[in-house]
Amino acid sequence: MKFKSIFWLASFLLAFWVFSACEENSTTTEPNPTVAGPDSMKATSLNETTVRLRWKLSPDESKTYFKDYVLYISPGAFAPRIIPKGTNTIDVTGLSDGTVYTFELRARNVDDKESVGSAKIQWSPAYRFTKNINDEAIRVYETASQFGSGLQLYDPNSGKPRTLKVASGEFWNLGVYTKGEASLYTANYIASNNLYNFPTSPSYITEISEDIFLTNTLDNVFDSQALNARNFSTNYYIDLADPDYKNGIVIIVRTKAPGATDWNYAKVLIKPGPNGLLQGTPDNRYIECEISYQKKTGVPYAKPIN
Questions:
Q1: Local structure of 167: helix, strand or coil
Q2: Does the global pTM surpass 0.85?
Q3: Taking Cα atoms as reference points, which of 259, 253, 205 lies closest to residue 230?
Q4: Of 49, 62, 96, 292, which has the maximum CB count within 10 A?
Q5: What is the pLDDT confidence band of residue 304, given thresholds at 50, 70 and 90?
């Protein structure tokens, strides 16, 4: 019995030592750090249902605990969208023209914990036009041409842009003038300076932004602020012969229809030809345009987020 008691005591002490050693050697796993969020989000409208977003990547992408991004879209029944690390541009589809959406992008660590900081913007898609009311390229001709020298960015009756002659000057938003120069003016400037003899003065108020983007595609013009934060004037114009513009430009325009209390916003691409913005031969030189147009008034594409 004494032998058994000693054996039992030894076994108990050995088990106690093993248990204590395990307790002393156990370690607590620390949670992964929260990753820094992306920032500097910008957007552009590809068409009436699609917006392209671009942002600056999280500075923590190289960390082992960095996982991916998650994009939240509101309003609407949009599920959170998971975006792989290393991605800084995406197209969001299934949107509605004139609706201002909030896009918020957060980074996630491997524990799916989201960053405190995020990249955010409010934006609305807009219609994209490459053809006019006659389903032809949107061309605006020089002063000497028998074709139209004026452009209506959007005709609400046809749902498309129109190229118009002087007889329809009341509907002009922009006009090409090439007597001794080669310029694109607002119709209001043309009327006030008697460059064309309009039977009826322009009924729209049209203004051009002072900002000009050197590009040959509308898809390259991203914004991070509301377009109405830019400087506009009826007196701003485009020198179509400027050599800096020969590879294409995008201008921002806003118009106010008769009786309207707010503006419609548009971006207008003037496409490059072999010799610059003016294409064709005298007396039928022209500019060819592509238009991104927001049909809903008072929606300047982007709005700041508080």
A1: helix
A2: yes
A3: 253
A4: 292
A5: low
